[in-house]
Amino acid sequence: MLLFICIFQVVYFLVKSFPVTENLNTVVVDVEYQDQLEDLRVKSQNKDTFQLYPFNPNYISDFKGYTLGMSIEEINRLHAFRAKNKYVNSSLEFQKVTLVSDSLLELVSPYFKFPEWVGKNKKTPIVGGNLAESGISKTSLVSQAGLSSLNSRFKDLNTATAEDLKDIKGIGSVLSQRIVKFRDLLGGFVKEEQLGHVYGLEPEVTASILKRFKILERPSISKININIASPGEISKLVYIKYEVAARIVAFRDVNGGIDSFDELVGIEDFPSEKLDIIELYLQL
Question: What is each CA distance from 182 to 9, 229, 238, 241, 271, in whole angstroms?
Fold first, then answer.
């Protein structure tokens, strides 16, 4: 009896001295890791989502037309029209050629992006004779007169020297040289808005330059064929870094070529906001 009492006393003492702690839930939530998992989940849900960017409908490929919801017949009508070296210049012309439905046209036409020169008539010089014989309207003569006036009021932005540009308030030696270097790398400005792409040039200074300088003569551009050019050749265009040029070539090789400039928008780090300018220096 005394032995049992002693054993119970020892057990009681041990329990009191070394209490058994309850196994609590010690799991710690890694917030950063959970956020990464959530991002992956969202990307997985949206991986098949088709995002539409502004594009020129004249260059719709089979795949592009399919993603827009066009039928094979509608796509073929457009391609047959383009095979004749013709272009659609408005949403209504696009519908007239392809015969797409009003509902589809209403959905995609806000993303149509036509070149700025669409609808502008080429200037035809008068060789001799009167207006009726030459086929030149009075409006055309007014336009030509306006061009002469423009030449007298402005200097050509594509022939301006660094010294010429330094006459503008806010333009010093560094900026004037930078503008000339950027222009020379481009082979000449094609659009006046390109002046705003010069690093460090403030918008108000750009506006001041364009009050005295205009593009009076457009340069002759040697276009880069992105379906055969190497990354080094593509990256010669100042808007495209070598890494992006390499991705363009990789995309081209995987897809068997590039059918539309709009396909470039989906390439990582491609400057899509300048696509309308970049198109002028490229060819398919």
Answer: 94, 22, 8, 15, 17
Q: Which two tokens stand for residue 193?
A: 């808005």
Give the per-residue pLDDT at 167: 85
C-alpha to C-alpha distance for 71 and 62, rounded to whole angstroms: 10
| 214 contacts 159 by C-beta, under 8 angstroms | no
Q: What is the pLDDT of residue 120?
A: 47
Is-contact 58 74, C-beta < 8 A? no
- The predicted pLDDT at position 273 comes to 82
The pair of structure tokens assigned to 123 is 């200037």
Contacts 24+ apart (CB under 8 A), 38-47: none
Q: What is the CATH number of domain 140-214?
A: 1.10.150.320
- Weakly modelled stretches of the chain, pLDDT under 70: 15-52, 116-152
Q: Which long-range contacts (CB under 8 A, 24 or more apart) does 131-139 make?
A: none
CA–CA separation, 264 and 201 (whole Å): 27
Q: Which residues pair with 155 in a beta bridge?
A: 213
Three-class secondary structure of residue 20 per DSSP = coil
**C-beta neighbour count of 245 within 10 angstroms:** 23
Q: What CATH number matches the domain at 224-283, 1.10.760, 3.40.630, 1.10.10, 1.10.150?
A: 1.10.150
> What does the pLDDT look like over 79-115, one tens digit per residue?
999 888 888 888 899 999 999 898 888 888 888 887 7
Whole-number Å distance between alpha carbons of 251 and 234: 14
Structure confidence by residue, pLDDT tens digits, 136-178? 444 444 444 554 555 557 788 888 888 888 888 888 888 889 9
In the prediction, which pLDDT does 141 show?
A: 42
Q: Where, residue-wise, is CATH 1.10.150.320 in the chain? A: 140-214
Distances (CA, A) of 141 to 51, 136, 179: 46, 7, 34
